[in-house]
Amino acid sequence: MSDLTKRYDFALLFDVQDGNPNGDPDAGNLPRIDAETGMGLVTDVCLKRKVRNYVQLSGKDIFIKEKAVLNTLISNAYEEQKIDLTKDPVDLKDGKKRNKDGTAQGGEVEKGRSYMCSRYYDIRTFGAVMSTGANAGQVRGPIQITFARSVEPVVALEHSITRMAVTTEADAEKQSGDNRTMGRKYTVPYGLYCSHGFVSAHLANQTGFSAEDLKLFWEALQNMFEHDRSAARGMMSTRGLYVFEHSTALGNAPAHKLFERIKVERKPESEGPARSFEDYTVTIDESGLDGVTLHKMLC
Fold first, then answer.
1. pLDDT, tens digit, for every residue of 66-77?
2. What predicted TM-score, i.e. pTM, was given to this entire model?
3. Contacts of 226 (CB under 8 A, 6+ apart)
4. Which of 106, 79, 74 is nearest to 90 (CA)?
5. Pfam families attached here (predicted)?
6. What number of helices (H) and strands (E) belong to the chain?
7. Which residues span the domain enclosing 199?
8. How far is CA 48 from CA 200, 217, 225, 226, 247, in A?
9. Cα separation of 219 and 62, whole Å?
10. For all residues of the chain together, what is the average pLDDT?
11. CA triplet 10, 263, 204: central angle to 5 degrees?
12. Which end of the chain is more exposed for a tag (fewer CB within 10 A), N or C?
């Protein structure tokens, strides 16, 4: 059960300066760009990774983490509940014989799913597919996030870089008197991106996602770039978080209509390509928000 009783829709504004916000491994790690429009893209997976990292730093446990063996974590969930998946099910409604040794079935799967939701923040937030290994089923998370798209076309710059060291003695012997090796680095000079997200009270009730969890999520969106610094990503910052709170679980207005109230435009005096957030102005139409409350958490 969850104490969340309202629907939320939100818009996240963030920018990058002299960095690569989300490289594409299928394109030599170039910044992701819509080939038809030139707009920059950042995937939902990339944004959720940053949220997960912040949540882990805050002390919460997460399921999708570096070097985690997911099937082992699923098996541990049954061991910690003292459910032996090598024996026939205790509940006859789940079958007299176990279908496959080491794999949950029937009501055991629901117990495993509930335990995983209570244990791991990212499962009860974003959902997860846990039908591998011991099988804890699937969870559809209450929070869904779209790709982020830049408000204007971006350009990907290619930089040549050099390395003054080599990795092996053999490489050193090949290069007489000069150990430099060449490489490439890609950056976006500047880009302002917008992503949209949705919070479902109905799905929160299924996963146990609470009001406290939601508070941590808002905190993560505002601060996640502060703990994700790297030379490759340049200067990334959250520039705006606008949350539309509905008065009911079903909502009081279509999400797209609410998002259309947020306008990000270039300032009239700004000439040439944008190079900072100061080149833009953000305006919001707050009239006629019947049953919807706008929270400007960061602007």
1. 999 999 999 999
2. 0.93
3. none
4. 106
5. Cas_Cas7 (PF05107)
6. 8, 14
7. 8-157+185-298
8. 17, 10, 12, 15, 26
9. 16
10. 94
11. 10
12. N
